[in-house]
């Protein structure tokens, strides 16, 4: 009776451990590995094994910044089964990393949450962080921005405003650049970029913050009129000319 009570609060219960084949992946690829289950001090019925890819995003609540979690993807590895006392089981898995998964820059974090759904007991869970590298189309943009003299100084995952909302996603990942050299130094305060990716193309929305010049510029800045928005799309065949596309998109507003 005591052992049953202890298992109900997670003591002596089955355990899980998620082993990732490669903890560094790119959006649009598969994250692979295996889940290892070790039985506790008695047989237990497992309702299912579930796995989710999760991220955090920031939201403003009562003048404070708090984090909210969002499941990017979720899968069920198996149906009901019984794990015997001390039994060791291994189950391989493969989960698609969505194209809208935030990349691991700045404070952005993505992890795999794995759990056992055990009847009448606390569900054991395992959390494993994943490094998300930029998709090739996003990486090309970041390189072009650097070639034009911009320095990436901040990356945030935050609640999406109506202007930047992407379908049902509650967040966007925003990349903020400062012009450190080149033709836009002294002409812009900063450049912000938000990406929407598909398999073959990327659409980037730019917020271009012009530097205030003179009294007129200061008035425009105080009224929020120093910010302009631009958007363009590009595919794999456009990467050789991406520096030019980006520069032209910025020049139209400064």
TrEMBL record:
Pfam family, one: Spo0M
Organism in which the protein naturally occurs: Slackia piriformis YIT 12062
Listed InterPro entries: Spore_0_M (IPR009776)
Protein name from the UniProt record: Sporulation-control protein
């Amino acid at each position: 009776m005591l052992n049953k009570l202890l298992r109900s609060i997670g003591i002596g219960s089955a355990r899980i451990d998620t082993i990732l084949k490669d903890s560094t992946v790119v959006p649009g690829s598969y994250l692979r590995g295996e889940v290892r289950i070790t039985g506790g001090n008695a047989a237990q019925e497992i309702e299912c094994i579930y796995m989710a890819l999760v991220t955090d995003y920031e939201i403003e609540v009562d003048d404070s910044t708090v984090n909210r979690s969002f499941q990017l993807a979720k899968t069920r590895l198996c149906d009901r089964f019984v794990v015997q006392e001390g039994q060791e089981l291994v189950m391989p898995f493969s989960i698609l990393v969505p194209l809208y998964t935030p990349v691991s820059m700045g404070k952005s974090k993505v992890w795999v949450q794995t759990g056992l759904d055990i009847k009448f007991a606390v569900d054991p869970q395992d959390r494993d962080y994943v490094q998300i590298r930029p998709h090739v189309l996003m990486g090309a943009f970041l390189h072009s921005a650097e070639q034009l003299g911009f320095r990436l100084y901040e990356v945030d995952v935050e609640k999406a405003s109506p202007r930047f909302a992407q379908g049902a996603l509650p967040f966007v990942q925003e990349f903020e650049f400062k012009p450190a050299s080149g033709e836009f130094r002294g002409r812009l305060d900063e450049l912000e970029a938000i990406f929407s990716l598909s398999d073959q193309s990327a659409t980037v929305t730019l917020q271009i913050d012009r530097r205030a010049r003179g009294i007129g510029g200061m008035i425009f800045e105080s009224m929020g009129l120093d910010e302009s928005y631009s958007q363009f799309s590009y595919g794999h065949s456009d990467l050789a000319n991406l520096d030019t596309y980006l520069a032209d998109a910025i020049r139209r507003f400064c």
